[in-house]
Design a protein that fits this description.
Number of strands: 4
Shape: globular
Largest sheet: 2 strands, antiparallel
Mean pLDDT: 83
Strand content: 5-15%
Helix content: 55-70%
Order of helices and strands: EHHEEHHHHHHE
Length: 261
């Protein structure tokens, strides 16, 4: 049975392919990281937000969330049991991938791109205000507040502004671009974690190392598991986004509707 792209998914698929192509081309353009920097910071917020959400879902509390100028991030939570530690440590990279996949599915399910941008902006604002400012002030940890506040506020304003003023086509493209950035950055970060988890790599604190310390299972195995899960999430999202099994009435036309009788 053939699998093809639904006719009503083709405009969205085109926007996604254009966003992916632009993202890949920018890797080879000198100083293009200046253009993609805001998106990298956005993905870092989503990554750290994944840790925070997992902590809350397992009955722990979030002490602080911070994002640095180099696009790294830190989230401090209270420690729960074994299951909690495993879920919290895994939720960063997989959370970024899942969020990118969610954006793809929302667009495919005809959720207005403006609504998605508005929701994303409010999410970043909530993470910034609650866990990037209020909770650190409450606990007396001030070091990460300035940049987290500035970056989170600018991202939230930008996303809400796009939701309010951008055309439907521009808004859809930006949602597709955000989705691509979440997916690509999650995969690139997982690749980095994999190499940092090898026996010959320098000792660098990573989520995989946290998992190894909590479980006794080598960090490289956790990196492999996360990579496999990330690709599974991406495969499932792409199936929902563009693919559909052809009906028996159109066995030889995977990209066309059946001809009129």
């Amino acid at each position: 049975m053939k699998v093809g792209i639904l006719r009503d998914a083709r405009p969205q698929a085109t926007a996604l392919l254009i966003a992916a192509a632009i993202s890949i081309v920018l890797w080879f353009v000198p100083y293009a990281e200046v253009l993609t920097y805001p998106f990298r910071i956005f993905v870092t917020f989503i990554h750290e937000g994944g840790h925070a959400l997992a902590a809350l879902l397992t009955g722990n509390s979030v002490e602080s969330l911070s994002v640095a100028m180099n696009a790294s991030g830190e989230t401090y939570t209270t420690h729960g049991g074994f299951f909690s530690q495993v879920l919290v440590a895994s939720a960063g990279y997989l959370g970024s991938m899942a969020f990118g996949a969610l954006l793809l599915v929302l667009i495919r399910k005809a959720i207005a791109a403006r609504v998605v941008l508005l929701g994303s902006g409010l999410l970043i604002l909530g993470l910034t205000v609650i866990y990037g400012v209020f909770k650190p002030i409450w606990s007396g940890a001030f070091s990460g507040i300035p940049f987290t506040l500035i970056a989170g506020s600018l991202l939230a304003v930008g996303l809400v502004g796009l939701a309010r003023f951008a055309s439907s086509r521009v808004a859809t493209f930006f949602v597709s671009f955000l989705a691509v950035q979440c997916v690509l950055n999650a995969l690139l970060d997982l690749k980095t974690v994999f190499f940092l988890s090898t026996p010959f790599a320098p000792s660098v604190p990573t989520d995989a190392m946290n998992m190894a310390n909590a479980t006794g299972i080598p960090a490289i195995l956790w990196a492999i598991v996360w990579i496999a899960i990330a690709f599974a999430i991406l495969w499932f999202a792409m199936r929902l986004y563009v693919a559909s099994r052809d009906s028996a009435a159109q066995p030889d036309l995977p990209f066309e509707d059946s001809p009129a009788a």
